[in-house]
Amino acid sequence: MKLKWMLVLVMGTFLFACDSAKDDSTEQTEEIIDDSTVEGDISHGDNSRVSLDWSGTYKGLLPCADCEGIEAEVTLNEDETFHYKYVYLTSKEDQVVFEESGKFEWDAAGSKITLTFESELAKPQYRVGENHLLMLGEAGEIIEGSLADAYVLNKQ
Q: Which CATH number is associated with domain 49-155?
């Protein structure tokens, strides 16, 4: 009788361990899949540039240090041109609108784009994701902190 209980205990432990290992590998696979759509290996053709339907218009409300916010709209075209419009929300009569069009370039990994303005004022960078653009910092890094979620433009 003791042998039966011992066998049941060992089998239960074995089955539980197998189930746990399966869950861990599934989570790791999901993380790899998620990362590959954002920052894939271009040699395998699995990156944002080739895997996602990235052309279209993206909108969002970005944080602003000295105004109520910035209404941002970025339109990406298949021919790698863009239209960029920022409206700085202040009082109605003082709203500042910045618009420009130009070409954008993909990084070598096919996950980030850089907008190039004719005026050469700035070169904003975005990480291209599934139905969104993530605005990056000046050096191309992901913006972190309490306002990090506010730097996302969603596809319309």
A: 2.40.128.640
